[in-house]
Amino acid sequence: MSRDYTDIPPIPETVWQKPLPFIAFGLGSGTIPFAPGTFGTLMAVPFYLALQPVSTLTYCIITLVITLASIWICGKVSQDIHIQDHQGMCLDEVPGFFVAMIHAPQGWQWIALGFILFRLFDIWKPWPIRYVDKNIHGGFGMIFDDVLAGVYALVIMQIIALLF
């Protein structure tokens, strides 16, 4: 099954001219014409690696701050470009992935598992993620559905960590 990418609104020029759109479009990763959410999540991995040495409490506080900042940035950029949740706006992947990786064990296998689980839940959108995605708008809605996908991934990751 291939996707027709002609229905995607064009990438605003401001992505390359102003800091907030650049950030909202995942430091430019959202401008890739296919799988912007996957590339946005990949963009989050080095930032996650930089945070691995901090305590779980500090990590959670940073994740909360990034989540709140992302809500504001995505809401503002959506208003500025007059497009609600442009597909290329993939900043929402960062707090979602960060939530998935809360208290994750060390190792590339766990990063890969967190990445796969987060992307799976973000694409599949089981209840209530699909409801949030369809019914809650603005910056909060754009970020909250990914945070919920991160929560699903977090729960599965922690169960697997307990079993192995």
Give an account of the 3D structure.
There is one protein chain. With 164 residues, the chain is mostly helical. The chain has helices at 19-24, 36-51, 56-81, 93-100, 108-124, 129-135, 138-163. Helix 3 (56-81) runs antiparallel to helix 7 (138-163). The longest helix is centred in the middle third of the chain and has 26 residues, at 56-81.
Distance between the termini: 36 Å
Shape: globular
**Roughly how much helix do the residues carry, as a percent range?**
55-70%
H/E element string?
Answer: HHHHHHH
What is the helix tally? 7
Structural class: mainly alpha
Radius of gyration: 15 Å
Number of domains: 1
Unreliable residue stretches? none
Summarize the structure in short:
This protein has 164 residues and is mainly α. The chain is built from seven helices and no strands.
Task: Describe the secondary structure blueprint for this structure.
Blueprint: H1 19-24, H2 36-51, H3 56-81, H4 93-100, H5 108-124, H6 129-135, H7 138-163
Key phrases:
single chain, 65% helix, 0% strand
